[in-house]
Amino acid sequence: MFPLRCRQRFILVPPDSHVPTDHPAATAASPSHAGEAHEPLRGGFTSTRFVLVEPSHPGNVGAAARALKTMGFSRLVLVAPRVPLVHCDPEAVAMASGADDVLAAAHIVPTLADALAGVQWSMALTARTREYGPPPGAPRQAVQDACRQVAHGDIALVFGNERTGLSNDDVERCSALAHIPANPAYSSLNLAQAVQVLAYELRLAYLGEGEPGIALPGAGAVSGGLAAGPLATSDDIERMYVHLENALIALDFLDPANPKKLMSRLRRLFARSGLEREEVNIVRGIAKHILMLKGKEGGK
């Protein structure tokens, strides 16, 4: 369950009413942006979550909400924000600048696992090179994967803390990894700016670069000559890893006292494949039989 949120007042602007240019709602209601203000959200726009992990500054959360709304997105998830009621914080509301509805509707959860519950595919944003985790790609390439995966269900883009970014564990939990190729001499990108870059790239990809109504790949799309089955959810994949790890321990292949990087390498291997639900079931079936042969019944 998500915690109760404070109540906020919203100003409803009729489609034909005049709004002063200095009013917070002017941008959304002005004639030049009328199409954007009333653009129906559909497809990937409603199936994409933007997840901020442990954001420190309320202003960045508000600015991120604004970035999402300008690109037609609305699903914001906050993992253990430093300010518990950040969506009510005056600085966050001010920086949202008219995206109060996106900010107020933000879901607040305690862990990244909770934020990814029910997600079919997720992409982590990182500013530094990682030894483990999925292979990194540029945002423009990564969002093409997002377009293919969103046809199967919810997807998520995951952003780290302003100061420390994402932990290795957080990165390994995601299906893909992206890096914004900023100026190497000054690559520090504000959290809300990073959200804006990815939301923009994803918007172009979803709309087919200015072609509204373009069809996204369906669940039965053919990939590499084979009909792709339903993808496994993040929850299913995490349970598979637990099951597989227990089986490897039972085989004495994995020493829990000295695991090294075995599970991290296996996560990287599986992340490259885009696991389908049936494939996860196969791996878990193998793990189950290993545990049965070893006289162990746990690990599910």
UniProtKB/TrEMBL annotation:
One of its GO terms (biological process) is tRNA nucleoside ribose methylation. Keywords: Cytoplasm, Methyltransferase, S-adenosyl-L-methionine, Transferase, tRNA processing. Residues 49-200 form the tRNA/rRNA methyltransferase SpoU type domain. The keyword Isomerase does not apply. Residues 15-40 are annotated as: Disordered. It is found in: Cytoplasm. It catalyses: uridine(32) in tRNA + S-adenosyl-L-methionine = 2'-O-methyluridine(32) in tRNA + S-adenosyl-L-homocysteine + H(+); cytidine(32) in tRNA + S-adenosyl-L-methionine = 2'-O-methylcytidine(32) in tRNA + S-adenosyl-L-homocysteine + H(+). Its EC number is 2.1.1.200. InterPro entries: Alpha/beta_knot_MTases, RNA_MeTrfase_TrmJ/LasT, SpoU_MeTrfase, tRNA_m1G_MTases_N. Its main location: cytoplasm. Coiled coil: none annotated. GO terms for molecular function: RNA binding; tRNA (cytidine(32)/uridine(32)-2'-O)-methyltransferase activity. GO terms for cellular component: cytosol. Residues 22-34 have a biased composition (Low complexity). Belongs to the class IV-like SAM-binding methyltransferase superfamily. RNA methyltransferase TrmH family. Homodimer. Catalyzes the formation of 2'O-methylated cytidine (Cm32) or 2'O-methylated uridine (Um32) at position 32 in tRNA. This is tRNA (cytidine/uridine-2'-O-)-methyltransferase TrmJ. It comes from Paraburkholderia sacchari.
